[in-house]
Amino acid sequence: MPQTRDRRLDLSKGLLIAGVVLGHFLETSGGQEPGDLYSGWSHDPQRWVLTFLYLFHMPLFVFLAGITARSSGVAHRVAEMAGLYLLLQIAYVVPRFGFDSLTSDRLLDPTYALWFLLAMVWWLLSLPVVERLGAWALPVATAASVIAVVLPYPDGNLVAWSRALCFWPFFVAGRLYGVGALRRTVSLPPAVRVAAATALVATTTVVVKTGLAPQWFRGADGAIAMDVSGLQAMTFRVLCLGLAILCGACVLALIPAHMQVPEALGRRSLAIYALHIPMVFVMEVVFESVGLAPIEATLLAVALTIVMLRILVFPVFDKAVRRTASTMAAVAVPPVLARR
């Protein structure tokens, strides 16, 4: 990274974290208990917005995480992510299921969006391999992502291995090529921006109309869970990786040079990601009990997103989360290892 941090990095993270929060509220807004997918995926217009978001927002978020990743001090950073995951997993599981639910299986099975913290552990641990492989790291990560979809383990949520492998190529791409990608996509000609916006709308429409199962581009499920052949599963994985690259590039082409509010959100994205989850659980119960019409539920999800972002953008939350994670890591990692 250059010494002067690219403002579009924080701006991009801010817009994406807003999409993450909105997506989580929309997922639970359908008014029924979740089955294989949260109920919002079964209703319009939620399904359209969710499809649009999920085509790019997590791959691109992981890409940006790769830009900021550093191999120096990786032991401390890994301990931060693992400690924060364990603390939040306990904090979110106990109120919902009781102390008796804190089994080893439960602790290793991420609650809702907490999978990202465990995935960050795996991605950070991969940094020495990525740096040793150099330009070969991206083909290797892509091959691992495709092969992972046919591994004979149905529970891909266990220690977030499925999503970690699915999105690993984007982390590697961000680490190797992210800074250049941000520079090349700033201040593009209007015609390019129009083409990018058109491509995003067209891709979303095609995916919705063709009925591509959201499980494929969410990254958690493989051949066994989806009950398809290995060849079919790998084909869908390659397709979804391609869609994510296309849509992610289009989004980067549309992001302006600066926007003050999203930049602030981006700088505090870790706290927003971690702390909005309890409200999603609360609203899941509300949506199930109230039974709003799809349009009303969608508008409520948007309003809730705005409120949560306005609250969690305050620096006190970000400082608390980062200080807590850093303190746990300082206790867990000896100083000699923390510098490595």
**Rg, alpha carbons:** 19 Å
Fraction of residues in helix: over 70%
Give the number of helices. 20
- What composes the largest sheet? none
Give me the count of strands.
0
How would you describe the shape? globular
> What kind of oligomer do you see?
single chain
Mean pLDDT rating: 91
Share of residues in strands:
under 5%
| Low-pLDDT regions | none
**Could you give the distance between the termini?**
18 Å
Structural class: mainly alpha
* Helix and strand run: HHHHHHHHHHHHHHHHHHHH
Molecular structure report:
It contains 20 helices and no strands. With 340 residues, the protein is mostly helical. The chain is globular and about 50 Å long. It has helices spanning 7-27, 46-54, 57-68, 74-97, 104-107, 115-125, 127-133, 137-148, 161-166, 168-184, 190-210, 214-218, 223-226, 230-254, 260-267, 269-275, 277-290, 294-312, 315-332, 335-338. The mean pLDDT is 91.
Spell out the key features of this protein.
340 residues; globular
Write the layout of secondary structure elements.
Layout: H1 7-27, H2 46-54, H3 57-68, H4 74-97, H5 104-107, H6 115-125, H7 127-133, H8 137-148, H9 161-166, H10 168-184, H11 190-210, H12 214-218, H13 223-226, H14 230-254, H15 260-267, H16 269-275, H17 277-290, H18 294-312, H19 315-332, H20 335-338
Helix pairs in contact: 1-2, 1-3, 1-15, 1-18, 2-11, 3-10, 4-6, 4-19, 8-10, 11-14, 16-19
